[in-house]
Amino acid sequence: MSVSNVEAPGAPVTRQRFAPVAQLGTAALVLIVVGGVYMASYAPRRPPLTAPICLAAASAALLLVNVVMLFRTRGLAWDKFFLVGRWTLLSYVIAAGLIEFAFVHNHTRGGPLVVLTAMLVLFALDVPLIISYTVARYQSAPSRAG
Amino acid sequence: MTDTRVDALSTGAAAELATATGQGGSPGALGPPRPVIQIVPLKGLPVVAVVLGFLVASIGFNWQWGIDFNHVAGGGLWTGIDLFVGLVVGPILGRMSIPARAEFSARFMPKMVLIMPTLVAMTLASGYQLALDLGNLKASSPNHSWLIVSFIVVGVMAVVALGLLEPANIAVLFEMRKPRPDGEVIAKLMKRFIYTAGITGLMQVATLIIMTRVASQ
């Protein structure tokens, strides 16, 4: 992922070019949000599940691609990534749990609950990924470009 | 969630920012002492826990006053803070010196890391419950379509806040904690607040219109 690794004393310091993990993560988040809005708009009725399942599957695919790209990234400040990642993961697991609680409390059951839970799992993984990656990429050591 | 409209710190201002944040020179010789930045203010966590506990209890026990309180207080503060910061604090901040901006941001942004997600959770969870309890989500309700629009508005704000602003907010705080903060990085990240301030402001005004429509039908 690094494109500017040429060391040149006195040359201007530039940042590495990283994979678009944050952008893809935001795209995955958009899909989850659209799916969530779609399902919530049917409440208290049972929503059709085809569209939310497709949206969740697309979001999961993007997340998977993102994770692969992430672990192929060189020069990322992994210590900062995991430091931020574990705390944001904790906070978003709590947030997702609150949302799950609200739906369970309102008698969401069966297929809709499964799809909703899958979306919340994706949400709780995706947002910490975006945040921790954004922090880590700017904490990485800058390289010098000629 | 943190709609902190702050004018971008230009690349040329990096040196000034460095001075403001204590970079270079002898410590204390240039500018005011550098504030210690705590990214998540730990003292605020018990307050957040109490607020969220109250929210869960209100929903869990179907406590009508609690649900109303969470939605009205949380929503009012969320919209008010977003608009006030975007329309009042942001432009003032933009006219302040770079060191003053840096110092303000160092003290202001960590608080927003706790305040805004808490207000958003209060508002949305209680709002959904309220809509169900009042029957506003039923397809036959005259408020149904307004609430769907409000879901979309909230969805847009969620993507902006979670996908763009919160990562930038935390990344800026990490950058400012460095012994030698990179003004260019801070400037780049802060641009997100300016680009999205209009969207957030528009969405909040839409929320005010929708919610007052829903309440009056």
Structure, explained:
- The complex is a heterodimer of chains A (146) and B (217).
- Chain A is mainly α and 146 residues long.
- Chain A has one domain.
- In chain A, 70% of the residues lie in helices and 3% in strands.
- In chain A, strands 1-2 form a two-stranded antiparallel ribbon.
- The model of chain A is unreliable at 1-13 (pLDDT under 50).
- Chain B is mainly α.
- Chain B has one domain (42-216).
- Helix content of chain B is 73%, strand content 0%.
- Chain B has six helices and no strands.
- Chain B has helices spanning 14-20, 45-60, 64-94, 98-134, 144-177, 183-216.
- In chain B, helix 3 (64-94) crosses helix 6 (183-216).
- The longest helix of chain B is centred in the middle third of the chain and has 37 residues, at 98-134.
- The two termini of chain B are 29 Å apart.
- Residues 1-30 of chain B have low confidence and may be disordered.
Number of strands of chain B: 0
Give me the secondary-structure category of chain B: mainly alpha
Count of folded domains of chain B:
1
The CA-CA distance between the termini of chain B, in Å, is 29 Å
**Roughly what is the average pLDDT of chain B, rounded to an integer?**
84
Task: Summarize the main sheet of chain B.
Answer: none
The CA-CA distance between the termini of chain A, in Å, is: 18 Å
Strand order of the largest sheet of chain A: 1-2
- Total helix count of chain B? 6
The shape of chain B, in one word, is globular
Structural class of chain A: mainly alpha
Gyration radius of chain A, to the nearest Å? Answer: 19 Å
Low-pLDDT windows of residues of chain A: 1-13
Helix proportion of chain B: over 70%
Number of helices of chain A: 4
Based on CA atoms alone, the radius of gyration of chain B comes out at 20 Å
